[in-house]
Amino acid sequence: MRPYSDTPDGRYFVVRGRLWRKSDPRLDRVEREQLVRDLMSARRAVKDAKGNSVELAAARKRVDDAKVALGERGPVWWDDGAPDYNRHMAKNTPYADWFASL
After folding, report:
1. What's the pTM value of the predicted model, to 2 decimals?
2. 87-97 confidence digits (pLDDT tens)
3. Cβ contacts of residue 27 below 8 Å, gap of 6+?
């Protein structure tokens, strides 16, 4: 099994048995790259803000905003009405049989 297997529908990748929502595939390359740069900058700001609660809260908000813009958090990016299993253990979702077969 690869360390980060993608679900058959491409909505999630799996790390240590947990599903993590992937970025919205409809984002164009330039927009995705900018959002990833924003996310990485925000993550560095979180690291740099340790010990300063005001800066830490602002940096964490930037991380969340970037993840929502990428489609990794917030409203789902698919439109077929399927529920979101982000952060669920794969074995406790409809992906259980697929995950067990890896």
Report:
1. 0.89
2. 999 999 999 99
3. 35, 70, 71
Q: Long-range CB contacts (< 8 A, 24+ apart) of 87-95?
A: 87/18, 87/19, 87/20, 88/18, 88/19, 89/17, 89/18, 89/19, 90/14, 90/17, 90/18, 90/19, 91/17, 93/19, 95/7, 95/12, 95/19
What does the alpha-carbon distance between residue 88 and residue 68 come to, in Å, rounded to a whole number? Answer: 18
In 2-100, the DSSP E strands lie at: 5-6, 12-15, 18-21
Q: 36-65: per-residue pLDDT in tens? A: 999 999 999 999 999 999 999 999 999 999
